[in-house]
Amino acid sequence: MKDPVDVLIIGAGASGAAVAWSLAETKMHILCLEQGGWMNPAEYPSTGRDWEAKFYGEWSSSPNVRGRPEDYPINDDNSPIKVVNYNAVGGSTVMYTAHWPRLHPSDFKVKTLDGVADDWPIDYDALTPFFEENDRMMGTSGLSGDPLSPLTHPPMPQQPLGLSGAIIAKAMNKLGWHWWPSDTTVATMDYEGRARCINLGHCTPACAQGAKASTDITYWPHAIRAGVELRTHCRVREITTDDNGMASGVVYYDKDGIEQFQPAHVVIIACNGVGTPRLLLNSASGRFPNGLANSSGLVGKNLMFHPYAQIYGYVKEPTDSNRAPPTCLWSKQWYDTDLSRGFVRGYGVQFVRGAGPVFEAVVSEQKGILPWGEDHHRVFRKLNGHRLGFSAICEDLPEEHNRVTLDPVLKDSHGIPAPKVDYTISENSRKMMEHALARGREFLETAGASDICVNSPIPWGGWHLLGTARMGTDPERSVVNEWGRTHDVKNLFIVDGSIFVTSGGVNPTSTIQALALYIADQMKQRLANLFD
Amino acid sequence: MSDQLPLTPRQRQDLSTIAAMIVPASDEYKVPGADDPEIQADMLATLGRDTKQVAAALDHLARLAGMPLADLEPAARDGVVQQFRISGGVAAATLVRVVLQCYYRDDRVLRSLGLELRAPFPKGHVLPDGDWSLLDPVKARGGSLRRTP
Questions:
Q1: Using CB atoms, which residue from B22, B110, B149 is nearest to A109?
Q2: What is the side-by-side order of every strand in the sheet holding A347-352?
Q3: Which of A140, A306, A416, B33 is within CB 3.0–4.6 Å of B25 for a Cys-Cys bond?
Q4: Does B137 map to a domain?
Q5: Average pLDDT, whole number, for chain A?
Q6: Does residue B52 fall inside a structural domain?
Q7: Considering only alpha carbons, which residue of chain B is nearest residue A383?
Q8: Mean pLDDT, residues A276-304
């Protein structure tokens, strides 16, 4: 039998890396098990001429399409939004747009302010130092001083405005609407061993330059140097418990597929909003028949995706196309509740610079604006390199019927039951999406765009996996307490997006990592009585 | 040799025919059609995980046509292809995507579009910094975060 470790972290992505690094200073024996492996930037899509074709196969954002051995299948047939993620050291930070807004202070008080959902048991101020610490560790770029966003201090200047940014800015100014250069985790200068961005194009499927922050090149090197052990290609099947109802360790399959048991004094789950409930539900036992830490019955429930309402069109001027990071500017014009709009809460906007030629051809053909036959070439030249996009990240409110359960049939390559997602877009979200599309259309028309197309929701847009093990002070209405410890198992913690109480209207990774650092800090402060 | 190809001769023939219907050659733009032998060879060489869907699409097309697509009269061929686009589902969409992704990485096509014949890395691209005075009206308007209790 293996020697027990002090702390066992499951998952080496955004939150697992942050919590590992933060806890390393305790000098405890910390082990992280990750089902994926280390990435090799020499194999990233942008190193090859066929870079765009790879997005449809081995570099698809969908694990179901990719089907790598490191991935697990997800039954999302009963959801208009499909789950996208990545499984490797770095997790989904390997494959994300690097857009880096954070939740607003008001997002933590939605019940008090708007009478919907629940307030968080913590407030923005509790996370402020960890947002700052995380921004330094991930290395952010941006422009401080946005009047409609929380104050940030990015250590690097914002991305260039570029061709697309200038067109967007002029149109937004004509309308008198708010916009601001986005905070991103794209390095705009050499930073902590990372080379500055050279505009390889689509950041989403990994950055060969290393300019985009992913935790395999930010947190992990520091954590490993500080003594954290990271074991790759190890897929955890279940968390075990002892006679006292405490977590005793995990059963996992090692890189050779051999079942192993790793005892641990503390277990931290960092598998995000689908992987975490899957693991808890797969850890059911005689003592925990409905899944581990699930006395509330809320494990897997309240899944929030952020339905994306995307609208795009084509301007006469050239745009940046694929020659720049895809996101550059945001707008918070419609972020806060205004009941005259017909819905509660709001949405952030991220503007899109453009697309590459293959993506443009494939999508435009599917949309019916790129014809077959003789006129194909003329139309393609009108579209290619002229796209401009407006994507609204709509706040999804928690609803228990939106959930992750275990599929009764589908299993991963180790025979572990796969997750099943049941999700519908609420009436409130639909109204919000319609509002966003109308504003997006105004924006595009003001920019002089034609051939306007809509993706609402973006079907392969389930990047943000939130709410399925929510945080709260009431054990009957939440899974973890206000510092990330499960109510039911006193040495089991969750640090990922599943503990979100509400989703806000922004990309969540900055907040997920700030939460992970906050929970690590709480653990460090309570080491003497962590299990009380 | 032919045994190693992922598609049957009939499937390859129909793939070439439908590819030319999607993207025909153009003298005006000085580009080949998607039935160009080099582009077709690229498709066959890189079908990989798409082979099953593309083969299924071509089988569906063959059923609709009842004979090699190229042998149909133009009007009948257009009718078959219309039906194929309506009824072909994911398989048809995969076939079209394979045609387009191989076409739009061909050197002659990229050159015609004014694009460089290279991978994005390591050269990257240059992006103009832009006129940041555009932000002045936003700064002047100001605003504040929603108050929290």
A1: B149
A2: A180-181, A327-331, A347-352, A387-394, A308-314, A450-455
A3: B33
A4: no
A5: 97
A6: yes
A7: B113
A8: 98
Number of domains in chain B: 1
pLDDT of residue A394: 98
For A323-357, what is each residue's pLDDT tens digit?
999 888 999 999 999 999 999 999 999 999 989 99
| In-domain check, residue B144 | no
Residue A307: φ, ψ to 5°:
-65, 130
Please state the three-class secondary structure of A101-122 as a single string.
CCCCHHHHCHHHHHCCCCCCCC
B126, A109: Cβ pair inside 8 Å?
no
User: For chain B, which ranges sit under pLDDT 70?
Assistant: 1-4
**Strands A327-331 and A180-181, sheet pairing:** antiparallel
Pairing of strands A259-269, A492-494: parallel
Q: What is the ipTM of this complex?
A: 0.96
Positive or negative, the CA dihedral A331, A458, A359, A361 is: negative
Structural domain harbouring B37: 9-116
Which of A198, A329, A351 should be substituted to probe chain B, the one whose Cβ sees the most B Cβ atoms within 10 Å?
Answer: A198
Return the pLDDT at B4: 64
Instruction: Give the rounded distance of the alpha carbon of B142 from its chain centre.
Output: 46
* Neighboring chain B residues of A105 at a CB cutoff of 8 Å: 145-146, 148
Q: Which amino acid, one-letter code, is at A2?
A: K
Burial A88-109, CB ≥16 within 10 A → b, else e: bbbbbbbbbbbbbbbbbbbbbb
**In a domain? residue B133:** no
CB A531 within 8 A of CB A245: no
